[in-house]
């Protein structure tokens, strides 16, 4: 069984590439993003995996009595998208998340298409800090924002950062 069967779009936007291998190099301002929507089935599977069965995510009748009026995607699924960018695409394999801090200024609803974006804010040796956000592009609504610090492989750092 596939947990998240829907297609996820990846976009990489960097200013520098490493020779013919096309490995993106990290520089201040480099960024990458992915876009996805979470179905009711995705949310139910996550609830089952984590035992987070808060009715705000699962119960249509319950949410109608709240200020949200519609089922809300678990916020940590947005963080999962950000982790997907960082660990798979940019900086990619071999990266290790050291810390992250997130805020959830607005809810993400089931089937809303959300874009998770990471931007390099600071580089200190192999520790790289990223600004992170998840935004519903159709409305401009930010549903998750914060920062993440990673330990990245040396081959992802540019020569201008003194690591080539």
UniProtKB/TrEMBL annotation:
MaoC-like domain residues: 35-127
Record has Membrane as a keyword: yes
Residue ranges the record marks as coiled coil: none
Keyword Cytoplasm listed: no
Gene3D superfamilies linked:
Hotdog Thioesterase
Q: Membrane-spanning residues where? A: 72-90
Superkingdom, natural source: Eukaryota
Query: What SUPFAM superfamilies would the database entry show?
Result: Thioesterase/thiol ester dehydrase-isomerase
Example of a GO cellular component annotation carried by this entry: mitochondrion
Question: Which Gene Ontology terms describe the biological processes this protein takes part in?
Answer: fatty acid biosynthetic process
| Any matching Pfam family | MaoC_dehydratas
Q: Which UniProt keywords apply?
A: Membrane, Transmembrane, Transmembrane helix
Q: Which GO terms describe its molecular function?
A: (3R)-hydroxyacyl-[acyl-carrier-protein] dehydratase activity; 3-hydroxyacyl-CoA dehydratase activity
Q: Which PANTHER family match?
A: HYDROXYACYL-THIOESTER DEHYDRATASE TYPE 2, MITOCHONDRIAL, HYDROXYACYL-THIOESTER DEHYDRATASE TYPE 2, MITOCHONDRIAL-RELATED
Name the UniProt record assigns to this protein: MaoC-like domain-containing protein
């Amino acid at each position: 069984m596939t947990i998240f069967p829907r297609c996820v779009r990846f976009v990489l936007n960097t200013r520098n590439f490493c020779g013919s291998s096309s490995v993106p190099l990290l520089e201040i301002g480099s960024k990458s993003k992915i876009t996805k929507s979470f179905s009711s089935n995705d949310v139910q599977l996550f609830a089952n995996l984590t035992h987070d069965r808060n009715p705000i995510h699962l119960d249509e009748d319950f949410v109608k009595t709240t200020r949200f009026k519609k089922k809300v995607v678990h916020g940590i699924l947005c963080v999962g998208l950000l982790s997907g960018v960082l660990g798979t695409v940019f900086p990619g394999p071999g990266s290790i998340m050291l810390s992250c801090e997130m805020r959830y200024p607005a809810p993400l609803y089931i089937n809303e298409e959300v874009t998770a974006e990471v931007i390099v804010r600071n580089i200190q040796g192999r520790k790289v800090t990223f600004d992170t956000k998840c935004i519903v592009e159709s409305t401009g609504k930010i549903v998750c924002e914060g920062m993440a610090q990673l330990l990245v492989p040396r081959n992802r750092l540019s020569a201008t950062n003194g690591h080539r």
